[in-house]
Amino acid sequence: xxxxxxxxxxxxxxxxxxxxLNAVIRGIAKRAxxxxxxEVYGSIEAFNGVFRDPVEIVKLSRRVVGGIHVRGGTIxxxxxxxxxxxxxxxxxxxxxxxxxxxxxxxxxxxxxxFEAVINIGGxxxxxxxxxxxxxxxxxxxxxxxxxxxxxxxxLTFGFQTAVQxxxxxxxxxxxxAESHHRVMIMEVMxxxxxxIALHTAIAGGAEVxxxxxxPYDVTKIVNRxxxxxxxxxxxxxxxxxxxxxxxxxxxxxxxxxxxxEHVRLGGVAxxxxxxxxxxxxxxxxxxxxxxxxxxxxxPIAFDRVLxxxxxxxxxxxxxxxxxxxxxxYKNNDITSVTLxxxxxxxSFVNKDSHLVKAAKGLxxxxxx
Length: 368
Hints:
Layout: E1 7-13, H1 21-33, E2 38-43, H2 48-51, E3 57-59, H3 62-65, E4 87-90, E5 96-99, H4 102-111, E6 116-121, H5 123-134, E7 139-143, H6 159-180, E8 183-188, H7 195-204, E9 208-210, H8 218-227, E10 236-241, E11 253-254, E12 264-265, H9 268-278, E13 285-289, H10 301-319, E14 325-330, E15 333-338, H11 339-342, H12 354-361
Parallel strand pairs: 1-2, 1-6, 6-7, 7-14, 8-10, 8-13, 9-10
Antiparallel strand pairs: 2-3, 4-5, 11-12, 14-15
Helix pairs in contact: 1-10, 6-7
C-alpha cells in the first residue's frame, strides 16, 4: 500500500471557450501521471468552482480525460463572470457590486491543499494569474484565445481552427454570391484584433476585408463593389471583424450580460449593409454572422498538437517551480515568458505588416 503524500495541482479554464482547451487539460493530466506522486484536479467554471460552497472541483483521472483532445469546448466549463480581482456580487436591489476577492481565493486554494495552479485563458485570465501570483499563489498561465491577440506568443491554440471554420463558411458564401450576383458580408469574431478576418480573407479570396485596426471609408468599399459589376452582373464577398468601425463612426455594440465586464459586440455586418445602401450601392446585399460557430466543434490537428504541447510544458514548469510564467510558442519552439510580459501588450494587425501587404497585393481592399 502506497501511503506517500500526493502533490495536488489545480487546473481551470476561463473566459471564452475555444477548440483545444480539452487537449491542454489532457496534456497536463497525462504528463502529471508519469510523475506518480501528483494528482490533478479541475475547478468548474474557472475560479467559481473554488468560491462555491461546497466547492466544485473534480479529479482529472485517466477515465475523465481519456480521449477528450478531440472534443471542442472544455470539460471544466468556463465563464467570463468570475474575475476574482473584480468579482460581481449581486445586491438586494438587483444591481452588481464588484469586489476584490483575490486574497480570499488564494487562502482557500492553499487551505484545499493545492501546491500550484494552471490557469488556461486569454489576456484577461492571465492578468488574473498575475494578480494572484503577486498574492503568493504558485501559478502558471496557458494562453488561449481564438483572436490570436497575445503578443508574447506567436500563436494561440484555437485560432487556426476558427480560421478554418470561417474559411469553410466563406467558401460556401462565394458560390451563392456568384449564383445570385450578390454582395455577401460575413461577420467573424475579432473584438480588437482582425487576425481571423485577415487570414480568412486571404484563404477565401475575399474582395474586401474590414478589420478593427484599419477604420474603413464606406465610399471606397462602394466603389470597389461597383467595379466588380457590369450590366448588373457580378458578385463581391466581404469579411468583416465584429470590432470593425468606420472612419467617422464607432464599434457596433450593446450592453453585456448582467455580471459581465464586457460589452457585447455583433451586428456590424448589418450596419455595414445599411451604410453601403445609404452610400448608393445598387447590388443586392446579404449578411451572415458566424458568431459562436467559430468557437465550436473539434479542433483541427494543428491546434490539438499545439494545445498538447502547451499542456505538457505547463506541467513541467510546475515541476521546476518556475511560477509566475506563461507558456508561449516562439520561433517554432515551446517556451515561457513572465506573466508581466505576457500581459504587457496585445497583438494587433499592423497595417504595414507582410500579411496586409500581401493581401493588398492579391487585390483585397481594406476600405482605407
